[in-house]
């Protein structure tokens, strides 16, 4: 389940970068036309993740309320060092396992989602930082919630690893992953600090690129209006000179 939310988060980030980056601003109109011709819809890919979201949320809320009640069966239904599922892990092993499995799923998921391009480097660093950010919040979670979370992380990790097997990808007709050599790429890989500086979704850069995209769209609409008007409207009279300016008769002045 966690892998589904990771993919959904990556998908929306890709859409933001696609909308705000300058190359995408130039080719956004061509992309929209191509998707209309091929009857492609990016919203279809997020139907399944959105359908599974209520399941994860309801399980989380239900386990938390049962632990806070507390339910008698949860007090003795644990394993090893966490026998009482209504209490937090005293050794913090479950939060650590949760963060580690999440990080492993993110690493495999981002690699499979082809986030190795230069514009996506900062996004990879953001995703890698998520397990460390949520660790302070999961430290005090009841063990019942973390058991559910770890199990879903393990299933997501197995699913991502399963789909990376070449034989499985061939069976389900999934395109193979293309790996480019670093020396053949036009741009060198940048570090975390440089990647964030050049990240296209920063506030200033995003605002500038959004203005560029809007200007290109308005210019395209203006060209369409002029094209239709030229084909249906009256013929516009043209001049060999600027009619708003007076023509000075140079020959007459010379004779004088």
Describe this structure in words.
Helix 4 runs parallel beside helix 6. This protein is elongated. The protein contains ten helices and no strands. The chain has helices at residues 2-20, 22-37, 47-68, 93-112, 121-138, 143-162, 166-171, 192-197, 203-232, 250-255. The protein is mainly alpha-helical and 256 residues long. The protein has one domain (2-213).
Throw out a few tags for this protein.
YidC/ALB3/OXA1/COX18, 256 residues, elongated, transmembrane, mainly alpha, single chain
From N to C, what is the helix and strand string?
A: HHHHHHHHHH
Helical element count? 10
Care to count the β-strands?
0
Query: Which percent bin holds the helix content?
Result: 55-70%
Report the uncertain regions: 18-22
Keywords: Membrane, Mitochondrion, Mitochondrion inner membrane, Transit peptide, Transmembrane, Transmembrane helix
Subcellular location: Membrane; Mitochondrion inner membrane
Family: Belongs to the OXA1/ALB3/YidC family.
GO molecular function: membrane insertase activity
Task: Give a brief description.
The protein is mainly α. The protein has helices at 2-20, 22-37, 47-68, 93-112, 121-138, 143-162, 166-171, 192-197, 203-232, 250-255. It has one domain (2-213).
């Amino acid at each position: 389940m966690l892998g589904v939310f990771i993919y959904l988060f990556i998908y929306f980030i890709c859409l933001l970068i696609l909308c705000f980056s300058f190359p995408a601003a130039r080719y956004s109109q061509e992309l929209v036309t191509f998707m209309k011709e091929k009857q492609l819809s990016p919203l279809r890919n997020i139907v399944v993740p959105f359908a599974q979201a209520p399941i994860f949320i309801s399980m989380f809320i239900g386990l938390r309320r049962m632990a806070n009640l507390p339910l008698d069966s949860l007090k003795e239904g644990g394993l090893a060092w966490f026998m009482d599922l209504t209490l937090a892990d005293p050794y913090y092993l479950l939060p650590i396992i949760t963060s580690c499995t999440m990080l492993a799923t993110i690493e495999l998921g981002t690699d499979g989602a082809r986030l190795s391009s230069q514009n996506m480097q900062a996004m990879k660093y953001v995703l890698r930082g998520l397990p460390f950010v949520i660790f302070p919040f999961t430290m005090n979670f009841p063990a019942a919630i973390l058991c559910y979370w770890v199990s879903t992380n393990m299933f997501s990790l197995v699913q991502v690893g399963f789909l990376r097997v070449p034989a499985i990808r061939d069976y389900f007709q999934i395109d193979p992953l293309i790996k480019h050599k670093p020396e053949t790429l036009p741009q060198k890989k940048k570090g975390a600090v440089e990647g964030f500086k050049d990240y296209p979704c920063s506030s200033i850069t995003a605002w500038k690129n959004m203005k560029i995209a809007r200007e290109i769209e308005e210019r395209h609409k203006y060209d369409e209006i002029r094209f239709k008007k030229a084909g249906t409207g009256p013929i516009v009279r043209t001049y060999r000179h600027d009619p708003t300016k007076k023509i000075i008769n140079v020959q007459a002045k010379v004779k004088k």
